[in-house]
Amino acid sequence: MEDYARLQRRLMLATLMVSLVATLVAAWRFDLLVARSLLVGACAGVLYLRLLSRSVARLGGGSRQVGRFQLVVPIVLIVSAARFPQLDLLPAFVGFLLYKPALILQTVIDG
Predict the structure, then answer these.
(1) Over the stretch 71-96, which tens digit does the pLDDT of each residue have?
(2) Looking at the DSSP assignment, which residues form a beta bridge with residue 59?
(3) What global pTM score does this model have?
């Protein structure tokens, strides 16, 4: 379990680093609306990853399936981006998906 906790910390750190770099690049290359939307999406991605990891950690103890509560996070993000003019939908969704390059980066580093 200690190895899993260490992997969780590394994945969170990698996700935060990728998100920070992407937000800074978006602020420099585009405008602050895009950067803010990307940052909000990245925060939603970190929350999603955290909820997913907690659900996976409970597997085996008595639970046999991964919970579905974390699926609420992308739904709320998309609805919020569609409803509020302060968020752009595409950058928010791309920000949400930034946990995936962090996972790939972590896999390459470990491999």
Answers:
(1) 899 999 999 999 999 999 999 999 99
(2) 63
(3) 0.87
